[in-house]
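Hi again,

Forgot to attach this to my earlier email, sorry! This is the prediction with cytidine-5'-monophosphate bound. I've pasted everything inline since the attachment limit keeps bouncing my files.
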Amino acid sequence: MFKEKNVLVMVSGSVAAYKSATLVRLLIKSGANVRVGMTTAAQEFITSKTLSILSGNDVLTDLFVGHTSDIVHIDWAKWADIIFVVPATANLIGKLAQGIADDAVTATIMASTADKIIAPAMNDNMLANPAVMRNIATLKKDGWFVIESAVGFLAEGYIAQGRLPEPIDILQQSAVRLRAKNGMLIGKKVIITAGGTREDLDPVRYLTNRSSGKMGYALARAAAEMGAEVALITTIVRENIFGVTNIFVNSAQEMFDVATHEFATADVFISAAAVSDFKPAEIAVHKIKKQADDGLTLNLVQNPDILRTIGQSKKSHQIVIGFAAETQEILVHGQDKLIKKHADMLITNDVSQSDTGFSSDDNAVTILIPNRSPETLPKASKIDIARAIMTRVITLK
Ligand code: C5P
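Structure tokens for the complex follow:
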């Protein structure tokens, strides 16, 4: 997202200013060209020397001193593709919301048409101040992407909201948001299932499978990047993705209940979970004990088929997508499932290969859509495969 982009990091005078150094570092590592501007107060907290060395460029601190160009703020404003204001104090937020351009930082920001991201960091009472809240709301209305400050241990010595989120989180949220700007799925709700279901046997044991949930999480990220509101119904705890609500479940029945409920208000359903076809007929109340030399026979019954149920009940505007993990005759089984599950798209993957499919970071899939020729996507990272799948999804209806 930031590779070869011109990124301006504007730092203001909060105790969290030291985190701007990490942000600059991460941006450089991701291939961005980085320049830094600092308010006078910011220089009380971190030196311009540090940020100049990390960014590899002179730091903008003054409109009139130390520049050959007469109109440095215009030059910098034009240069920037993306502007981060991290951390942003109440004072700087107020100026930006009210259109005050009385120093190098505010004048440059105001002269720029770049994408603008701001991360407020301040005392909890300052953050809750009606004037600050008004100014933050104004910035949102003006098209700024405001990163919500986190609840955490403040410099004041207690836990409250006002903390600057970690730079890696700021970058991840911004990447999703910047991609979603012209997203084809803005205003759409996408629900995705992920991970292997767990079927309780007794209070300590359950039946499950090798699914890692990685493909489902990658699809959730790809859908969020296109601006969708995403609900990820998952058995696996992996990461929080901006724009994605994680709903944790265990059994296929729980997944069924949540998925059918969410589907009522959804536009797209993607079934990437490895749902157990069977569950124990009964869950033992106490741990099942070993009996002399006897083995144990499990009595299993069928789980509901989430994908088929949702496929059968879909309305004309709703899109339903399934996955098929196969080890042989992949296309034959895939075509069969496409029809049986009433799906609009079925993605087959060969789970017999160790370098793709379950648990792997990569995948290789074939996309089946009724009345279209199968399309094979060669081995790529799961996020790239997920992005490719989502671009096919928007061609469906
Ligand atoms: O029939 P099979 O399990 O092979 O189909 C795979 C697809 O069906 C996957 O998308 C999987 O998530 C979904 N599925 C389901 N409910 C089940 C079994 C599978 O939604 N009980």
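Residues 11 and 38 are 5 Å apart (CA to CA). The pocket of cytidine-5'-monophosphate is lined by residues 252, 271, 273, 275, 277, 303, 305-307, 322-324, 337 (CB under 6 Å).

That should be everything now.

G.
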